[in-house]
Write a structure and sequence with these properties.
4 strands, mainly alpha, two-stranded antiparallel ribbon, 281 residues
Length: 281
């Protein structure tokens, strides 16, 4: 029978020591403080942030709003830096960073082209911005920036879309883009085509809010119970955050481009039909 190598023995010994330390920590800390409020209060604070107001120039602001401003500023500064210092140096043989940017642009441009046809330019730019905001905003909660509330406690800034107000704002903005895009490109027919889907902003908003909030609530629930608060929250938190960042960016951009295409589709069909009739004549 082949004996394990020295590296294998060291790795297994280290893993056993870590597991033993975790078990000892769970046993020693079981029942020791930490649960200062009920699980219902923990869940409510994770959703509404009623007790987490932050003082900004004498005004009490929701931490989700602060997160939205920070994420927006980071994206704008990054975009300006890339536009001024990076894009002018693009070459025919792209490097790694250029390849990543081009792949992202190609993906959203292709998604817009498939769903919106010749009017894909505007909606392509919009879904690129919305997708970047959702992805970066969702990953933002992993940074864990601590801030002090008006009550003297410390909280970490959440993901902007884990607050219902941020989700409604993005869902409403997407719907207005579809609505007025249909009006400008297809007249009142396109406007009413989008208007009849009056539940669209609600579904977009609550899809974003529910998906992102589910990860936050699961993590809060795990942190609440001491016996689960070792290592597991890190794995669960990172996993849920990464999955939601990708899935929600894809879902909203796909829906926005698809409904935008529907609002302008009839216009395209009528135009194509007229051309076909003139050609036949």
């Amino acid at each position: 029978m082949k004996r394990p190598s020295k590296k294998t023995v060291i790795f297994l010994s280290f893993a056993a020591a870590v597991i033993a330390a975790l078990i000892v920590g769970i046993i020693l800390t079981d029942g020791m403080g930490g649960e200062k409020e009920s699980i219902n209060e923990v869940m409510r604070d994770a959703v509404l942030h009623e007790n987490d107001g932050i003082d900004i120039f004498g005004f009490t602001a929701n931490p989700g709003l602060i997160s939205a401003f920070v994420v927006t500023a980071v994206i704008l500064v990054f975009a300006v830096i890339v536009r001024i210092f990076v894009i002018p140096r693009f070459s025919h043989i792209p490097g790694k960073f250029q390849s990543v940017l081009e792949k992202a642009v190609e993906y959203f441009d292709g998604l817009a082209t498939v769903n919106a046809g010749k009017h894909s330019g505007f909606i392509g730019a919009y879904i690129f911005c919305a997708g970047a905001y959702i992805f970066i905003g969702t990953l933002f909660e992993l940074v864990g920036i601590p801030v002090q509330t008006v009550h003297g406690t410390t909280v970490c800034l959440p993901a902007p879309l884990s607050d219902i107000n941020g989700a409604i704002a993005l869902g409403g903005l997407s719907y207005l883009t579809i609505l007025f895009g249909g009006l400008f490109l297809n007249g009142f027919k396109g406007f009413f085509t989008a208007l009849k889907d009056f539940s669209l902003p609600i579904s977009m908003s609550f899809r974003l809010f529910g998906a992102l909030l589910s990860g936050a609530l699961v993590t809060e629930l795990i942190y609440y119970y001491t016996t689960l608060s070792f290592v597991l929250p890190v794995v669960v938190g990172v996993l849920f955050t990464l999955i939601h960042a990708v899935i929600q960016a894809y879902v909203l951009t796909m829906l926005a481009s698809m409904f935008f295409g529907e609002a302008t589709e009839k216009h395209e069909k009528i135009k194509d039909r007229t051309i076909m009739q003139q050609t036949a004549a």
